[in-house]
């Protein structure tokens, strides 16, 4: 099966595979960018990139680029992602401590089918839609 540069081949339980087109992202994560870059000025410094501490989705070469990008529009997505990250983490903490058990560990095979995980799954979906 031929793959696109931003595609992922996913095996199924039935022995077949399917291709998933992966989105492209700004930033430094090596899974998405071969070389890190500043999302504001698009320079590619060898080291020293700064990550947005609120949303953790944007990387900058210096504070000036970070401030300029925030004012130019990053503020909106940043606040939305941060809100959704907090919701996911709040639900994850609840599930890790659910009746003296960690539902992430005890319900691996049927996690999304357990009623107590619905709010967590909804929060994860909201975060995914924000990106």
Automatic annotation (TrEMBL):
Annotated ranges, domain MYND-type: 38-78
Keywords, in A-Z order: Metal-binding, Zinc, Zinc-finger
InterPro entries per the UniProt record, alphabetical: Znf_MYND
Keyword Coiled coil in annotation: no
An example molecular function term from Gene Ontology annotations: zinc ion binding
One protein family per Pfam: zf-MYND
Annotated protein name in UniProt: MYND-type domain-containing protein
The species this protein was found in: Fistulifera solaris
PROSITE patterns: ZF_MYND_1, ZF_MYND_2
């Amino acid at each position: 099966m031929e793959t696109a540069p931003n595609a992922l081949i996913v095996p199924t339980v039935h022995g077949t595979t399917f291709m998933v087109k992966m989105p492209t992202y700004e930033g430094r994560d090596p899974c998405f960018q071969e070389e890190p870059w500043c999302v504001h000025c698009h320079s590619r410094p060898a080291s020293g990139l700064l990550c947005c501490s609120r949303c953790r989705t944007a990387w900058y070469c210096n504070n000036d680029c970070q401030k300029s990008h925030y004012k130019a529009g990053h503020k909106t997505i940043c606040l939305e992602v941060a809100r959704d990250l907090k919701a996911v983490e709040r639900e994850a903490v609840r599930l890790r401590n659910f009746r003296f058990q960690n539902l992430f560990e005890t319900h691996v095979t049927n996690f999304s089918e357990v009623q107590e995980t619905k709010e967590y799954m909804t929060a994860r979906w909201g975060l995914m839609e924000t990106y």
